[in-house]
From TrEMBL:
Organism: Populus trichocarpa
Single GO biological process annotation from the record: lipid catabolic process
Protein name: Lipase
Pfam family, one: Abhydro_lipase
Cross-referenced Gene3D superfamilies: alpha/beta hydrolase
Catalytic center residues: 167 (nucleophile), 342 (charge relay system), 376 (charge relay system)
Keyword Hydrolase recorded: yes
C-alpha cells in the first residue's frame, strides 16, 4: 500500500544575529540555518501510521555561493541517529556542517527528524504522554518514517534522492531497502558509521549493560517507564550538573561521550553547551529493547515480541524474521564510511556487513572509506569532517548522478 503523504511548508527567511545555545524553540530553520544567510523552510510529513514529522529544507546555498540560479537542484535527504535529532548536523560553522556544505555545493538539502524527538512529537490521534504513542521501534522507522519522507521529497522535487544516514539512520535505510522500500526513489546512499550488526559492540551500551541482561533492562524500564526513554527529561539533575562542571576552563566535556561513542578525535569543545542543551532526544523503550535484542541475538532482525504466539500474530511465524541485507539492490551506489575508534559501529561488525554486501554488489557501485582516528560523533560534528568525510560524500554523489 503506498504511503498517504500530507505536507505543509512555511518559509523561514529572515536573518537573526548570533547562534544561541538554547534549544531552538522557534524551529531548526530560524535558530540554526537562516542566521547564517541561508533560506530555509519548515515542512511537516505525516506517516501512514499517523506520526507528524518535522523536516527542514535548505533549497540553496548562501547568496553568491553554490550557484543560486534557476538550475534544478538534486535533492539530498539527511537522517540522524538514535537519541539525537537534526540539530546535531548544524552545531558547527556553516563551512563545517554537512547540510550547509551540500547546499553551497548546489544541492537541495532536506533534514529529517525521527518520531518522538522534540520537533516530531505529534500524532494525528495520540498524545506524546500516552503509552500508545511510543509503541514502535526502528522497524517502524524503516517501514513508515523513512518511506514517508522519501515520498514527500520526491513529490516536491520530482527527482530521485541522494541519502545520507548516520548510525540508526543507516540501519533503517538498509532495512527499508532490503524490504523493497525506497528503491524507486533513491539515487544513492552514503552510510556514515553504518550500524547493522551489533555482535561485537564495545560501547557501554553493549558491554555488560542493561541491554544485554533482560532483568537489568526491566529495572531500567521500571525507572523510565515502559513507553518513552527520555534521558534528559528523567535525568535532568545530572545534565544540569554536567553543564555546570563543563563551564570550568580547560575541561573537554565531550570526553564524557567516549564510553558511549568511542574517543572522538575532532569535536569542537565550544559546541558542547549547544549540544547538551539540545541533546539527547527521546526515543521509545521499545526501540532501546530492540537494540538490545540485536546485541544479544547477533542478528539483524525485526522486533521480537517475546513469545512464539505474539510473533506469529505479528509476523505469521514464531520467530522474529531477519532482514535479508543481501536484497539491497546490487546496482544502488553505496558509500560506507567507518572509523577505527567507533565503539557503536565496531570495525568487526562493519566488516561483517561488508561481507554480505560485497559479494552481491556491483563493484563500481560500492565505495568504502576507513578512517583511523574517527569515532561515532566525529562523522556528524567533527571540525575536520568537511575534508575527511564530506568531500568524499560530495565526490560520490557527483559520480553517481545517472542511477
Amino acid at each position: 500500500m503506498p504511503h498517504q503523504i500530507y505536507g505543509s511548508s512555511r518559509g523561514s527567511l529572515a536573518l537573526t544575529s548570533g547562534i544561541s545555545d538554547h534549544p531552538p524553540a522557534d524551529g531548526i530553520c530560524a535558530t540554526l540555518v537562516t542566521i547564517h544567510g541561508y533560506k530555509c523552510q519548515e515542512h511537516e510529513v505525516v506517516t501512514e501510521d499517523g506520526y507528524i514529522l518535522s523536516v527542514q529544507r535548505i533549497p540553496g546555498g548562501r547568496v553568491g555561493v553554490g550557484g543560486n540560479g534557476d538550475t534544478k537542484r538534486q535533492p539530498v535527504l539527511i537522517q540522524h541517529g538514535v537519541l539525537v535529532d537534526g540539530v546535531t548536523w548544524l552545531l558547527n560553522q556553516p563551512e563545517q556542517n554537512l547540510p550547509t556544505i551540500l547546499a553551497d555545493q548546489g544541492f537541495d538539502v532536506w533534514i529529517s527528524n525521527t518520531r518522538g524527538t522534540r520537533f516530531s512529537n505529534r500524532h494525528l490521534s495520540l498524545q506524546v504522554n500516552q503509552q500508545g504513542y511510543w509503541n514502535w521501534s526502528w522497524d517502524e522507522l524503516a517501514k513508515f518514517d523513512l518511506p514517508a519522507v522519501f515520498d514527500y521529497v520526491y513529490n516536491e522535487t520530482g527527482q530521485k534522492i541522494h541519502y545520507v544516514g548516520h548510525s540508526q539512520g543507516t540501519l533503517i535505510a538498509m532495512a527499508a531497502l532490503s524490504e523493497g522500500l525506497l528503491v524507486e526513489k533513491i539515487k544513492s546512499a552514503a552510510l556514515l558509521s553504518p550500524v547493522a550488526y551489533l555482535n561485537t559492540v564495545t560501547s557501554i551500551l553493549g558491554v555488560d549493560s542493561y541491554l544485554i541482561n533482560p532483568t537489568c533492562f526491566q529495572q531500567v524500564a521500571n525507572l523510565f517507564g515502559d513507553s518513552a526513554f527520555d534521558p534528559k527529561g528523567q535525568l535532568l539533575p545530572f545534565f544540569n550538573i554536567a553543564r555546570t562542571l563543563c563551564d570550568a576552563p580547560g575541561i573537554d566535556c565531550y570526553g564524557l561521550l567516549a564510553p558511549l561513542t568511542g574517543p572522538n578525535c575532532c569535536l569542537n569543545v565550544s559546541t558542547f553547551h549547544p549540544f547538551i542543551r539540545n541533546e539527547p532526544q527521546p526515543t521509545s523503550m521499545m526501540n532501546i529493547r530492540h537494540c538490545g535484542q540485536s546485541i544479544r541475538e547477533k542478528v539483524v532482525a525485526k522486533y521480537d515480541y517475546g513469545s512464539s504466539e505474539a510473533n506469529t500474530a505479528r509476523y505469521g511465524e514464531a520467530k522474529a524474521p531477519a532482514y535479508n541485507l543481501s536484497n539491497i539492490p546490487k546496482n544502488l551506489p553505496l558509500f560506507l564510511s567507518y572509523g577505527a575508534l567507533d565503539t557503536l559501529s565496531d570495525v568487526r561488525d562493519v566488516n561483517l556487513l561488508l561481507g554480505i554486501l560485497k559479494p552481491n554488489h556491483d563493484v563500481d557501485k560500492l565505495t568504502i572509506q576507513y578512517i583511523n582516528n574517527y569515532a561515532h560523533m566525529d562523522f556528524i560534528m567533527g571540525v575536520n569532517a568537511k575534508d575527511v568525510v564530506y568531500s568524499q560524500v560530495l565526490s560520490f554523489f557527483k559520480n553517481h548522478t545517472g542511477f
